[in-house]
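STRUCTURE:
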């Protein structure tokens, strides 16, 4: 190996060392559509000072601003049920009228559900009474297929099982975390995930055609996989006891997990 190649490799290693090493996943709410006091399911991926909000059901934006005292830099939408997008109009108004940094938050949306998001949150005629503004003028919409960059980190997007096919998606960073969003069990997906990945999985105490239940978890996944899982999207604080009776790990509102990001998921600076 000649000297110039050696120096170049050393510089690459040095670049990687300067890149981001960790992220945190902080939950704002952990509940389903009929949650009672535990907030609608949503989390924030923190990468240095950049914050990516996952979903914005009713009350989520208030929880976000209360914690961070600013608006999100970006949002990822898992699917278009109102417990996940119901705060979008609030987000729109705040971006236009109380956005001191004058940013247009990025809205990462799986391309398969862009039309659903449009119908659910952006189709109201003349979103401002005075006219002259389109809903998406307040944001930077970025449709995504299976990967996207945020804060120099590579995120991947995978379809899950929630109502009609290809209408709900999970979000993750390889070998770091995977957030299922709302889903029935997805062993075909979860079994591909490495053992070092922390998995945040939809679960309520009793399953139904829309969501995973405790019996589904115990039937569909191996004990090794269950040990990687933390459960959310339940209904009341009382449910936590039931999860623990089955030795299942539960996410509580405001819980935060700091995780290492492997080199291949980081874009060198
Ligand atoms: Zn939900
Ligand atoms: Zn849902």
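SEQUENCE:
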């Amino acid at each position: 190996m000649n000297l110039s190649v050696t120096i170049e490799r050393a510089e690459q290693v040095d670049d990687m060392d300067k890149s981001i090493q960790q992220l945190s996943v902080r939950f704002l709410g952990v509940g389903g559509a009929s949650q009672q006091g535990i907030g609608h399911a949503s989390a924030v991926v923190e990468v240095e000072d950049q914050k990516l909000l996952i979903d914005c059901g009713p009350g989520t934006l208030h929880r976000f601003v209360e914690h961070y005292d600013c608006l999100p830099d970006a949002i990822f939408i898992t699917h278009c049920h109102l417990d996940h997008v119901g705060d979008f109009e609030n987000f729109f108004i705040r971006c236009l009228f109380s956005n001191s940094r004058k940013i247009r938050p990025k809205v990462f949306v799986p391309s398969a559900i862009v039309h659903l998001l449009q119908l659910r949150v952006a189709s109201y005629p003349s979103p401002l009474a005075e006219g002259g503004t389109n809903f998406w003028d307040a944001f930077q919409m970025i449709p995504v297929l299976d990967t996207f960059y945020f804060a120099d980190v590579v995120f991947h997007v995978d379809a899950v099982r929630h109502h009609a096919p290809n209408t709900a998606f999970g979000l993750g960073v390889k070998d770091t975390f995977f957030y299922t969003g709302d889903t029935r069990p997805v062993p075909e997906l979860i079994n591909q995930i490495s053992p070092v990945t922390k998995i945040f999985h939809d679960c309520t105490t009793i399953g139904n055609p829309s969501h995973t239940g405790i019996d589904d978890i115990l039937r569909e996944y191996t004990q090794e996989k269950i040990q990687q899982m933390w459960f959310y999207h339940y209904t009341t604080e009382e449910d936590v006891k039931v999860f623990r009776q089955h030795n299942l790990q539960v996410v509580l509102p405001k819980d935060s997990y700091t995780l290492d990001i492997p080199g291949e998921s980081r874009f060198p600076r």
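REMARK: The pocket of zinc ion (ligand 1) is lined by residues 32-33, 41, 81, 83-84, 182, 233 (CB under 6 Å).
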